[in-house]
Each structure stands twice: as structure tokens, then as C-alpha cells.
């Protein structure tokens, strides 16, 4: 069966449009309108064929570099708050991505929840390419997005750091910028990814919670409460009195997580990315330190154009 899958996957991928992928060895493939790395693409196709979501699942969705590490930590802390406190939470000793299986990678044997059995999964798959069982099961989705200028800058640094650590040559800022604007970036076009989930969240507001990194940074406590309500784990008034939401916010803050030994390690996640690479600055507006005003204007213009009429602003 596995052999059959490999064979048909190889055949299918050979028909897809390809582009060079920001200095990575393997090209991006355009699948159902989005640019994917072949390893993840295989996982997506496999998940589309085999993944069986449960109605009680919560799926954390995002395009890379928009705050998925933070979201995973917050949801984990919310769901496990009665089992642990600030001094015992596994967040202190484990890398946040390890709490939540990544659909594209665990495709073959999905999914035994690796930690504490929390029914949470994560994916970068665009809404229109999600396995149908996710929609049919009625499970809940949380999508996090971020201003495209900060997302691009975060992605640019992330990619450069990974490639440099592999002694490979990353693209320069201008080249990466052009590709991003063209839509050729991991799981891109960026705007189409965001819009897919945005439109779906308008259609199914009780099934899809649409979050923005900037708003969450601004008022994390309110959003933690909103998240808890959405996934069916509301804070009781007693918990609120004891400032449990505040403690979760503090535990999952960039300052706290990025200073934990486990998150400073060079240990690899997914065999190629060091834990510490997921924690860079964690700020809103860092694009100002990287983009020229022309670049910023150009991205703003694309964003304006792409999102016009959608009711979404980024
Ligand atoms: P910067 O590169 O702008 O610093 P993802 O987790 O989706 O890969 O996104 C990574 C971005 O989120 C990085 O942005 C990273 O620093 C930031 N980040 C990581 N942990 C965070 C946290 N606890 N709070 C806020 N931002 C965080």
C-alpha cells in the first residue's frame, strides 16, 4: 500500500509546476494553488487521503512564521492547567512544537497524541487543501495570521539562519522579497493562505477562530480567555480570581519561553531546524529594521489589493 502511494505520489508530483525554493536543495511544487516543499507536500497528499479528524479535535492552523509556536504553547497551557502549575508545566522542559502533532509530517500513522493526550493538532495546509474529514467532522480550527511585512521578515531571517547552519547559500533580501511578493514562499501565496481561512471563518464563526498576532500581543489576556472559551475550556470565575489566565500569558510570553534552556538548544526539530531558531525577536513592527520604505510600500499595496473587499485588514 505504501509502495502504491509512493508510486502515485511520484507520478503526480512530476506533473506539478516547480520553482526554486529560497536556496533550499529541493524545489517548491505548486499544488492546488500553493507552493509546498516536497516533504510537506507528500504529507499533505497522504493526509488528504487518510487523515481522519475527530469532532473533539482542535486544529491549529497557520502559514509559517505567524506565531504558531506561541499559539501551540498557549493552547497546551490552557488545556493542561488543571494538571500542572507554573512550576510543573511540561512547557518548562519540552519544546512547544512537540506537544502538538504536525499533520503534514505524521501522515502515515495519525495520530496518537504524543503528550497527555491533548486532542490538538497543527497544520500549515491552506484551507482549500485541508483533508475533507477536518471539515466533515465539525472539529474546531484556530488560525493565526500576522502582518505580511513582519511575517516576511521573520521568514527571511528563519530561512537564512537554517540555510547558513547547513552551509548552504540563502537568497539575499531583495531576491527573497521578490519571490514573496510573487507568492512563491513556503505555503504561499501568503495572502491567499490568509484569505482562505478568513473567508471560512466568516462562514463558520463557531468552528473557526481567526486570530491576529498583533492583536494578541496587544491584549494577550483577553485572547487567552477567548481561546479557552472557543475550545470549550473556559476559565471559571475562581480561576480568573486566581489569575490563572495571567499566569498562562506570562508562562507563554516570548521573554519567558525564549529564555528556557530547552528553547535555546541547538537540538533539531523535524531534523533540520534548531529549537532556538523559532525564537528570534517576537516583536510587532520589526520590519522597520529590515525593509526599505519602498519595499514596505510595495507589500502594503499588494496586501491592500489582495484583501480589498474581504473585510480583512492586515
Ligand atoms: P520573529 O521572527 O519576528 O521574531 P512561528 O512560531 O509561526 O514559526 O513564528 C515565529 C515568530 O513568532 C518569530 O517571530 C518568533 O520570534 C515569534 N515567537 C516565538 N515565540 C513567541 C512567543 N511566545 N510570543 C510571541 N512571539 C513569539
TrEMBL record:
Keyword terms of this UniProt record: Transferase
Keyword Nucleotidyltransferase: no
A Pfam family per the record: Sulfotransfer_1
Keyword Transferase: yes
Enzyme Commission (EC) number: 2.8.2.-
InterPro entries per record: P-loop_NTPase, Sulfotransferase_dom
GO molecular function annotation: sulfotransferase activity
Signal sequence, renumbered to the chain: none
Enzyme type, top EC level: transferase
Ranges for domain Sulfotransferase: 55-311
Family to which the UniProt record says this protein belongs: Belongs to the sulfotransferase 1 family.
Protein name stated in the entry: Sulfotransferase
Source species of the chain: Hibiscus syriacus (Rose of Sharon)
Amino acid at each position: 500500500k505504501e509502495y502504491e502511494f509512493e508510486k502515485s505520489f511520484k507520478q503526480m508530483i512530476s506533473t506539478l509546476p516547480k520553482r526554486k525554493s529560497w536556496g533550499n536543495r529541493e524545489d517548491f511544487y505548486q499544488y492546488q494553488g500553493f507552493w509546498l516543499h516536497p516533504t510537506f507536500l507528500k504529507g499533505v497528499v497522504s493526509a488528504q487521503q487518510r487523515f481522519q479528524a475527530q469532532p473533539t479535535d482542535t486544529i491549529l492552523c497557520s502559514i509559517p512564521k505567524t506565531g504558531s509556536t506561541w499559539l501551540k504553547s498557549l493552547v497546551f497551557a490552557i488545556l493542561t492547567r488543571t494538571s500542572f502549575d507554573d512550576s510543573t508545566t511540561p512547557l518548562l522542559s519540552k519544546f512547544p512544537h512537540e506537544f502538538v502533532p504536525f499533520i503534514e509530517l505524521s501522515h502515515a500513522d495519525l495520530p496518537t497524541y504524543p503528550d497527555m493526550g491533548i486532542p490538538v493538532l497543527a497544520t500549515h495546509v491552506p484551507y482549500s487543501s485541508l483533508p475533507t474529514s477536518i471539515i466533515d467532522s465539525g472539529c474546531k480550527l484556530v488560525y493565526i495570521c500576522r502582518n505580511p511585512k513582519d511575517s516576511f521578515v521573520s521568514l527571511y531571517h528563519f530561512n537564512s539562519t537554517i540555510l547558513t547552519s547547513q552551509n548552504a547559500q540563502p537568497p539575499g533580501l531583495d531576491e527573497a522579497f521578490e519571490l514573496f511578493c510573487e507568492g512563491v514562499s513556503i505555503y504561499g501565496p501568503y495572502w491567499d493562505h490568509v484569505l482562505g481561512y478568513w473567508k471560512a471563518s466568516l462562514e463558520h464563526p463557531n468552528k473557526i477562530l481567526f486570530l491576529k498576532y498583533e492583536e494578541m500581543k496587544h491584549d494577550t489576556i483577553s485572547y487567552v480567555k477567548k481561546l479557552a472559551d472557543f475550545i470549550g475550556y473556559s476559565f471559571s470565575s475562581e480561576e480568573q480570581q486566581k489569575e490563572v489566565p495571567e499566569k498562562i500569558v506570562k508562562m507563554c510570553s516570548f521573554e519567558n519561553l525564549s529564555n528556557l534552556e530547552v528553547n535555546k538548544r541547538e537540538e533539531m526539530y523535524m531534523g533540520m531546524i534548531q529549537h532556538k531558531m523559532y525564537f528570534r525577536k517576537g516583536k510587532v513592527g520589526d520590519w522597520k529594521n529590515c525593509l526599505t520604505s519602498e519595499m514596505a510600500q510595495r507589500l502594503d499595496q499588494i496586501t491592500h489589493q489582495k484583501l480589498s473587499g474581504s473585510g480583512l485588514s492586515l
